[in-house]
Amino acid sequence: MTDTHFPKDLATASHFVDGRYVEDTDGAPIKVIYPATGETIATVHEATPAIVEAAIASAARAQADWAALDGTARGRVLRRAAEIIFARNRELSILETYDTGKPLQETLVADATSGAEALEYFGGLAADVTGEAMRFGGDWAYTIRRPLGVCAGIGAWNYPTQIACWKAAPALATGNAMVFKPSETTPLCALKVAEILIEAGAPPGLFNVIQGRGAVGAALTEDPRIAKVSLTGSVPTGRKVYASAAAQMKHVTMELGGKSPFLVFADADLDDAVSGAINANFYSSGQVCSNGTRVFVHGDVHDAFVARLKARTETAVIGDPMDEATHFGPMTTQAQLDIVERHLATARDEGATVVTGGERLERPGFEAGYWITPAILTGVTDEMTVAREEVFGPVLSVLRFEEEAEVVARANATEFGLSAGVFTRDLSRAHRVAAQLEAGTIWINQYNLTPLGMPFGGSKQSGIGRENARLAMDHFTETQTVYVGMGPVEAAF
Ligand code: NDP
Question: Labelling 197: which of 47, 136, 164, 428 has CA 20 to 30 A away?
Fold first, then answer.
């Protein structure tokens, strides 16, 4: 293992461990590709066992002293890190765009800023990790929220900075340390979070970032020094990670995939519903876990909705992600592009109609990128593959419905339960339907907004536990109860 200085370009060192960038070229190389052009922009190396060991050991060293600090002091470090991220937002957003291909117009407002907001929010709450006191006659008991220890964070590739911060902020605020493994596809941004936390005053080792594929994630979940695993990823990976954590009775948070319903009733404000459907399907080129990809539209407004949706979608500015006028970028990987194209072909075979999009983009300079235009399918039925499986791409399926009870039943007829949307002007219907939908997060007349003060997470196969809000602090602590005897001790003999 050798130390390297971090050059101010994209060729970062691979890992950030014990307060500094480290490299170990014995690890298998992982190419970092700019999805817009297909060019290799950096190479990192998979963590070797020595790197994994160094990361866990230094996190364990840092954690005890960090947990012993006053919560206000912990919070101050997180809030300082938030300020640094806000100040460096443009630079970090450009890096996020290189890592993911998402347009700068999005990354400037939704990625580093969302990460900073998490550090700010949990930094504010760090002084408020409290227990309860209870009386039992003359005796009493009190509870203490204790940190879990060293936690592992494992991230997906669609929101690399946000995911790193959404996991780190509540973990560190409550006195834990974290070893974070980004997706092998987007390894660059989490390193910056680690660098910034050190600049903000975090002790070395408190937040380490190591690179690698699934095997490195598995090495973390299997290590007995890891007390909790927080994963953002697909349902199949979630099952493996959950099973691995269960072997040692570890705590878990699982933020997994979805196939969320988006309900448009006949009385909905159609322009708002169209805007919501665009946000729910085409933001980040559709690579958003909570997307409302099954768009159920009442028969009375179906044709009008589809016409407006098609017209609006065709105005999307698709192209150079670094141009701030661009709305829509490439898929993040060739593999994901292949999945989207396969789903579109299957949907056509099964009888759906592509009313717009689903085409490769031929633009000078971007020929080798992973481009596909936003696609709207009509005539989709519940049985079709595209209505049952997560696509994780810009494919919006329109399904027709007639009755409220019918659409609620169809919306719930899925193994997933991440999110749902309801567009209606009828207040009673909005809440009645929301109460029946089997989903962790439901938006009424809005979609995909996730302010930090609001819990976010899935039910059914979409996950367990919640991120954000005060609730996330519970998922990074456990309750210790202390019983206090105030009188004589009675015994049978
Ligand atoms: P994956 O499930 O493929 O991977 C998620 C992470 O787990 C990656 O870092 C991956 O490493 C790692 N990993 C893979 N196998 C193992 C293992 N056996 N043990 C430990 N870690 C492992 O997801 P994607 O990266 O493809 O992300 C897309 C998925 O994430 C979609 O299903 C999406 O819905 C979901 N998602 C959920 C969100 C939520 O909050 N609910 C938010 C964003 C995405 P590597 O990639 O390097 O192989």
Answer: 47
pLDDT in tens, 33-78: 999 999 999 999 999 999 999 999 999 999 999 999 999 999 999 9
* Ligand 1 centroid from CA 217, angstroms: 10
Cβ atoms of 249 and 221 within 8 Å: the answer is no
Task: Tell me which DSSP letter residue 289 carries.
Answer: T
CA distances from 188 to 11, 226, 264, 360 (A): 9, 23, 39, 27
- Written as one letter, the residue type at 447 is Y
Spell out the residues 6+ positions from residue 239 whose beta carbon is closer than 8 angstroms to its own: none
- Ligand 1 lining (C-beta closer than 6 Å): 154-158, 181, 183-185, 213-214, 217-218, 221, 232-234, 237, 240-241, 255-258, 289, 390, 392, 418, 458, 463
Q: Look at ligand 1, atom 9, and give the residue with the nearest C-alpha.
A: 183
Predicted pLDDT of residue 362: 83
pLDDT band of 8, cuts 50, 70, 90: very low
Pairing label, strands 226-232, 251-255: parallel
- Helical residues (DSSP H) of 200-333, grouped into ranges: 214-222, 235-246, 270-282, 302-313
Residues across the chain:
493
Say if CB 160 and CB 190 are below 8 A apart.
yes
* Of 176, 3, 192, residue with least CA distance to 93: 192
Residue nearest to atom 15 of ligand 1 (CA): 214
Distance between CA 443 and CA 141 in Å, rounded?
Answer: 40
Give tens-digit pLDDT for 476-488: 999 999 999 999 9
| Residue 255 appears among annotated catalytic residues | yes
Distance CA 95, CA 405 (A): 46
User: Does residue 289 carry a catalytic annotation?
Assistant: yes
Handedness of CA 383, 389, 390, 394 (dihedral sign): negative
**How would you classify the pairing of strands 15-17 and 20-23?**
antiparallel
Question: 3-class DSSP state for residue 151?
Answer: strand
The answer to whether 460 is a known catalytic residue is: no
Strands, E assignment, 63-104 = none
Q: What mean pLDDT do residues 364-370 have?
A: 94
pLDDT of residue 363: 85
Query: b/e for 114-138, b at 16 or more Cβ within 10 A?
Result: bbbbbbbbbbebbeebeeeeeeeee
Which residue is closest in CA terms to ligand 1's atom 1? Answer: 233
Could you tell me if 448 and 290 are in contact, meaning their C-beta atoms sit under 8 angstroms apart?
yes
Predicted confidence at residue 9, as pLDDT, reads 52
Contacts of 273 (CB under 8 A, 6+ apart): 264, 305, 423
Catalytic, 167? Answer yes
